[in-house]
Specification:
Elements lengths: L3 E4 L2 E10 L6 E7 L9 E2 L2 E2 L8 E4 L4 E3 L17 E2 L1
Antiparallel strand pairs: 1-2, 1-7, 2-3, 2-8, 3-6, 4-5
């Protein structure tokens, strides 16, 4: 949590890692720097993290890149980080 990443060419900060009620599997919640997202960290009435409107986005680890452009998915191995929100 708190790592700076790029998702779909948009910079942001990881705010949530874990399972969600809206879809199966592990999701990464990212707070984007600009209002280019889809939510405010709340999906279907459930708070996963808090951010400004349209600054939140949920993606799979495979969609993330670290700021230096390398894939960031190795940060999210099953043993690396427990399900957490901020």
């Amino acid at each position: 949590l708190g790592s700076r990443v790029i998702v779909q060419n948009k910079p942001g900060v990881i705010r949530f890692i874990g399972n969600t009620a809206f879809a199966k599997g592990k999701w990464i919640g990212v707070e984007l720097d600009e209002p280019l997202g889809k939510n405010d960290g709340i999906v279907g009435g459930k708070v996963y993290f808090k951010c400004r409107p349209k600054h939140g986005m949920f993606v799979r680890a495979s969609q993330l890149k670290s700021l230096n452009g390398t894939p960031a998915r190795r940060l999210f191995s099953d043993s690396a980080t427990p399900e957490t929100s901020r």
